[in-house]
Each structure stands twice: as structure tokens, then as C-alpha cells.
Amino acid sequence: MGPEEQKIDNYYLGNLGVLLADIFNEMNLIEEMSLKLSSFSDVSLKEMHTIQAIGLNGSTSSSELAEKLHITMGTLTVAIRNLVKKGYVQRNRLPEDRRVVRVELTKSGRVLYRIHRKFHVNMAKGTLKDFDAEEVDTIYRGLRSLQSFLNDTRIALMTQQEGLMNE
Questions:
Q1: By the 8 A CB rule, do 112 and 88 touch?
Q2: Rounded distance, CA 47 to CA 124, Å?
Q3: I need a surface site. Which of 72, 100, 130, 139 has the fewest CB within 10 A?
Q4: Banded pLDDT at 3 (limits 50, 70, 90)
Q5: pLDDT in tens, 42-59
């Protein structure tokens, strides 16, 4: 029996969306509270997600970062300006093309990134501690499937929005 043929218990169908929304809200609340109680209390959750998207991979172009975060260049410009003022991000223009701005984390930004990453790793460990390897693989595949569904839905909505704007 293929996945499309599987019958899913109505209990799970009725409660899974609520559970996912509750988890999302709880994660955001915990992340916000953790930031406020830390020495990084000047960083908002949105700024933390920008820092997370920049990561430790060296410098990233502003356009790549805006695309990764699914925000406009104007919104990103404001976010980066604030993170530069706070000392977590630095901007670099390419000498060969001054129009291209690359951003990277400062030492403070890298420290914050690592602390935030540790929170996510600890959350994953806490979630998966009672599961065997096969169950972990099933959970991982389910979350990847959710991620794919959300990405496809976002793209469809953006296409629909573009169609409305072009009318």
C-alpha cells in the first residue's frame, strides 16, 4: 500500500495541525524569552533568524539572504542596518562591484549563532531521546515532507499573488 493509499486516523488529522501550531508558538515564545533573559537581550527573534540565516558560512550576498528569508530587499536592509549598529553583523562591498553587498557575522554574531544553534540541537535531542533509529528516520522524513508541502504552498501562493498584481 503506497503513502497515498494509507488511511490516516481522523484523530491525527484533526489534532496534528493544532499540535504543529502549538509547537511553533511555544518555540517562538521560548526563543524570545531566552533572548530577553540572556546577554543578547537587544536582539529580537526576527533578528535572531536573520543571524541564523547568515550562519557561519562566510559572507552572503544581500539578495541571497533576502531570498533565503523570503523577505524583500528593503526589509532586509533595515534588519541588517540594525544588526550592524548592534555589532552582530558587518557589511562588505565587493571591490570589483560596489553594488554587491555581502554580509557576515561579527565575533559577537558568531557567539550568538552558536548559542542559538545549541538550543536547536538540544531541542532535537530532547525530542528524539525516546525513539530508536528507525523511528527517528520516520520523524525526519515526516518533517521533510511537511517542509516540502509548506514550500510548495508558499510558491503557489506567491504565484497567485503575482497573478493578482498583474491583473
A1: yes
A2: 22
A3: 130
A4: low
A5: 999 999 999 999 998 778
**SS3 for 97?**
strand
Residue 20 inside a domain? The answer is yes
The secondary structure of 147-159, three-state, reads HHHHHHHHHHHHH
CA 50 to chain centre: 8
Residues near 109 by beta carbon (within 8 Å), at least 6 away in sequence: 51, 54, 83, 87, 88, 89
52: nearest Cα among 41, 65, 33: 65
Report residue 81 as a C-alpha cell. Answer: 542596518
pLDDT band at residue 164 using 50, 70 and 90 as cut-offs: confident
Do 124 and 146 sit in the same domain of this protein? no
Q: How many domains does the chain have?
A: 2
Residue the block writes with cell 550562519 = 55
Q: In a 3-state reduction of DSSP, which class is residue 102? A: strand
Query: Residue 104's domain spans which residues?
Result: 9-130
pTM: 0.82
Terminal alpha carbon distance of the chain: 44
Query: Which residues, listed in sequence order, are joined to residue 61 by a DSSP beta bridge?
Result: 102
